[in-house]
Give the backbone structure.
Amino acid sequence: MDDKKYIKLIQSTNIAEYSNIKGMIILKPYGYKIWENIKKILNNLLIKNKYKNVYFPLLIPKNLLNIEYKFIKKIPKELAIVKYTKLKMSNKTKTLKIDKKSKLNTEYIIRPTSEVVIWDTFKKWIETYRDLPILINQWANVVRIEMRNKMLLRNSEFLWQEGHTAHNNKINAILEINKIKKIYKKLIKNYLSIPFINGYKTKTETFPGAKKTYTFETLTKIKGKSIQLATIHFLGNNFSRMFNVKFVNKDGKKKYVYGTSFGISTRLIGSLIMIHNDNNGLLLPPLIAPIQVIIIPIINKINKNKIYSYIKQIKKKISNKIKLKIDKNNNITPGQKFYKYDNMGIPIKILIGNFEFLNKQILIIRRDTFKKYKIKFKNNINGKLLKILNNIQKNIYKLAKKNMYNKIKYIKTYKDLKKNIQKKNGFFITNWSIKDNMKNEIKIKKKLKNSIRCIIKNKKKGKCILSGNNTNNLVVFGKSY
Amino acid sequence: MDDKKYIKLIQSTNIAEYSNIKGMIILKPYGYKIWENIKKILNNLLIKNKYKNVYFPLLIPKNLLNIEYKFIKKIPKELAIVKYTKLKMSNKTKTLKIDKKSKLNTEYIIRPTSEVVIWDTFKKWIETYRDLPILINQWANVVRIEMRNKMLLRNSEFLWQEGHTAHNNKINAILEINKIKKIYKKLIKNYLSIPFINGYKTKTETFPGAKKTYTFETLTKIKGKSIQLATIHFLGNNFSRMFNVKFVNKDGKKKYVYGTSFGISTRLIGSLIMIHNDNNGLLLPPLIAPIQVIIIPIINKINKNKIYSYIKQIKKKISNKIKLKIDKNNNITPGQKFYKYDNMGIPIKILIGNFEFLNKQILIIRRDTFKKYKIKFKNNINGKLLKILNNIQKNIYKLAKKNMYNKIKYIKTYKDLKKNIQKKNGFFITNWSIKDNMKNEIKIKKKLKNSIRCIIKNKKKGKCILSGNNTNNLVVFGKSY
């Protein structure tokens, strides 16, 4: 899907629109409902796994970033910095301008992510091993003033969840990471029906302050560009050292705390759009679709009441667990409704017209295959709908998986890598010695216009296609958004 | 409750704590859960009334505030203004400082409220009467850099919901306001068990840009200070005029749109604490309590397994709709648990010890009255718990109502007003001519150290205690937070 088509689809489905700040968007009801559905699913998974939701401040005092900077020697880019707190009228322009007298003693930065605030607070919360582990999560907004923007995939403000955990040792931190991997896998595969490759980032792409960043990567349907769906960071005891977060262990010794953090965002909405689409618009997996079944009446002045009455009876047979909507709007034709709801990706259309009324049946049309089903009123309509929805959920995943796998190639030589990259986008998996090629990573990235999306540990050793040395690493090259 | 006690209660119950930015707090799991419960209740009421949730950007471009300023001639105070987007290392101090080269072309202001962004967008969404009404709501954070702060009651950042509506005429806007009044009344009275007085604000206290601000006011339990719980604004067509938001009506004529906005925030948590408390700590209304029933085992090394097994059976008899927790922590005594959970305001304690096990019963203790109930295991434990919870919900309201009403006085003379205000805080209701006294409102406010919390329309006319003229207005004086 080219960029224009992608934006048009978001706008025509009323998922989102541009705001009057470059890079920031408005999530409209349909789009916000998709996010709410994702939230509900993931929140339940986290709560089941003993996470507690909290809320930390939006603003970070600069001194915390100073502390972080001293340790990791990196300055976060693209920040929104607050220095003044009052506006006044300019006598010259008769408009508002900053009142310089309202200068704050120090700068406040809108959180691009919350580790520094969290770990500065963990220092107060953690005394002994009894206070561990800590498993907290927050659903919040973050701001990263991006230069390049892409609606829903790369915005200057986005909604997300950020989980933060503290443990008494490295093993428990790693075990927690494995738990989150399972949770994210379930969310992305079973609920969003999105296939992915799972690995860890190279050093240059690792979260500043983390020891390792694990990532979930996928490919868009048409252009085969790579989207980073979710990340999990093993922080080691870096942030403990930064903020002096220690605990007294069972032997009475003071030790540094080990940490993790992880997050997914509204970028998942953009991912759904980029992956589940066809010529008719979106295809939404039923488990996160705001509307799962749309009933479209086909009426005229004579039979209107009869049909509506029949629809009422059908509605009674459908469990309220199914997200159902009936479109009684008479200002657009049934045909226009078909286009509208197909475009919105609604999994099931039910048509009810004179024919259905006379034959005491309903006509079901699947969004993914457009296969039709005639179900008699007396039969188990609800059961049939659930079965089809379940089928669609699985089929959408199958289609996406097939599409991604078609774009995955195992590469044997560096020449082949260059050739394939120029031909078509995709995932190019190859033996690659991280150690040998680390210095040139950025140069290679520029040359190939592809980056290493993640590293996968290979069981066997293979020859690095660039250095020729044996390596356990397989890397996945791709062109990112 | 004096200020120290109030803060101590928030901290000892782990509802919230100070952050490292003055005026901004951290909502800890228990406090955040109370907010989530309030959210769930109000969200359901709004959705039932056809509201759609959306999400607008955090940042407002200054030009929108310029437009608003031209119209209402007021500059919002206490803003967090973003002008720069990069930090760099200072060679002098070796710490981070603003990179002046990252100056934005215009200022972005963190939303103190979203009307200007919403109405600027409504312009694009509204063409004809078919596009009305619009009923949208957003759950979000806002920032108002306050000089005076009071944990949960007045913070520089808080979480809230802001509803925004657009209508084709004044009547429909007012009808919507009446709908929201009913919704807020239900939330505040039935769920939060908080009594209130409902009226509208004086001109100086009306939301800038609104024609009228309706308010829900209550009194704290001990000091009798006034808390503004919720506000609803009738905007008339002010914001339509500001942002040129018109629609073509059924007769083909272009008309200005009429609007409303309304909000409640995490201040409600502070209100709960200020109103529902006794010498043992908080008293939480069951319908918003994160934990409704806490089971406290009273065990020793010998009977431990027996008691836990018995508790397991009891748990099976309790519906999972009741928010139940079992405290098996052996590091604190049962007595310490009583204090802890009473302090946290948990509505029901169930004690299970050897005596209960041998007599095949449970011991229930109510948080509000400390009345005890012995219920046999074979009886309907679940039904009894529901009954008691329902009773507690009502009783907490009764106690709060009695307390508020004890602090309401009808005042006949200005001398009496001054006398009563000096004696004790409360609501002082009196006949008051807004028209006559408007010019002196701020002076009177300073002198009395009380402000007009709201105006209530009186059915009969009465003599204004200051000007002596007849008036339909009753006003409510109080000392605010």
About this structure: The radius of gyration of chain A is 26 Å. The first strand of chain A starts at residue 16 and ends at 18.
